[in-house]
Amino acid sequence: MFRIESKIDTKGADFLRNQAAYLELLDKYRETLATVKSGGSPQAVAKHKERGKLLARERIDLLVDRNTPFIELSALAAYGMYDGGFPSAGVVTGIGVIHGKEVMIIANDATVKGGTYVKETIKKHVRAQEIAMENRLPCVYLVDSGGVFLPEQANVFPDKYDFGRFFFNQARLSAKGIPQVAVVMGSCTAGGAYVPAMSDETIIVRNQGTIFIGGPPLVKAATGQEVTAEELGGAEVHTMISGVADHLAENDVHAIQICRNIFESIKRHQYQDLETHPIVEPCYNPEELYGILPIDLKKPVDSKEIIARMVDGSLFHEFKERYAPTITTGFARIMGYPVGIIANNGVLFGETALKGAHFVELCTSRNIPILFLQNVTGFIVGKEYERAGIARDGAKFVHAVANADVPKFTVVFGGSFGAGNYAMAGRAYEPRFLFMYPSSKISVMGGEQAAGVLITVKEEQLKAAGKQLSDEERDKLQETILKKYEVEGSAYFSTAHLWDDGIIDPVDTRKILGLAIAISQNKKYEKTQYGVFRM
Ligand code: COA
Question: Would you say the pTM of this structure is higher than 0.85?
Fold first, then answer.
């Protein structure tokens, strides 16, 4: 492979200006992250600690092997929603290593409304299980939850991917031989009782963990029986009488130790062998990404400059360098693993789509994972392009990506607009992971374009009725649409709604993708089968 020669002047005014603006964005991101990671209100945190309980993230720290990374997912889920009342959507999810095995950890944060579930909590929990299924990751549930957040019941209870999906997933995961372990460190009420009950192995903490289908108030209302929580479903009851739990722990630390011990007898399987090379750091400092990544999306960025700061040795075997340059395709290595990279360098033309589809075929035929680096405004529009069949060529790319059964990973480093989002493995195309940068944007089209479309539609409507839009009305409409797109198009809005797996610091991309590719080997890559390509 050849080394990418950077053309960036890291001392130049453009670079320094971009870097300063990016660092500001990053500061905001870090502050926001620190705030949500502090969990619920200080009073709720104090109450939790007074009970001798560890916080959700402290529990995870103790659970994973020392000096190994924990990749937290969607930390900013539900950000800006519910009046800020559900930091991280009240649940911490992520991938950690226990006794050398990668594990999906799902930990309720009881300091956030008693660890109850709103829509985003459920989406996050289900997404974590989906990742576990796709990558054959054992699951550990650190349970401390009052179940459904009752005022939101209509949004969380009955639908296909609502609360009931947790237990469905546990059964399916277990059936596939993917271990399910629960540690009951607090409440598991009503539906929540099925998390430990449906696990392969369950630990419960004395005087702290409870499991019941109906809590004491419900029992009293339904039967008149007066019973304490401990008598009804405490650790003694479940480890000695009911058998709903298997191990009694004296406290959080003891429970976590038992959980780690369980993993001593769980074998790690590697079903797909990627040919690995020794890890080599990029020749260019990844921190230089701050000076290069687009903040103003109108400014073109050469995606090879991004690739040079992401891949091992900045080495890149480019494919079709001279053809359709608005997309860059080629092979590289990340943390020693082979990867095919498809990165945007501008708008998608017909030939760009053909190049992309061809490259996807190369990757699937060689069983190489694909990394999509998105900065895409969409497909080209206009009479000549429609006549040349842009929709047909675009469809080939989308078809190839949809059917590519090697692991796909997507990082949005700029904009993600229109059908370009689909062709470049947006969420609907099932990348194993999709991450955003703090500066990235995502929406069906840019705000200005949307405003233009909607104003034209309105004008046509009024014209048909013999009226017209005043300048003032037009300005007002434009302003409203621009504002809406600015809010809804931001990475924060995306991550709050779980359209991605989290916002990441660009410098961490290599490390995160390295782990993502590593865990993809836990499952044999399926053989890709394409359908009908429209020719
Ligand atoms: N729905 C909505 N809100 C709930 C809730 C639920 N199921 N369970 C707890 N909360 C809220 C409380 O109103 C309180 O809100 P606030 O901070 O705004 O006052 C917060 O969560 C903490 O609850 P609190 O009871 O003060 O904390 P706790 O640590 O002493 O007890 C529980 C936590 C979960 C054990 C307890 O609240 C409980 O038993 N809740 C009911 C659980 C239940 O029956 N769920 C059935 C749903 S399927």
Answer: yes
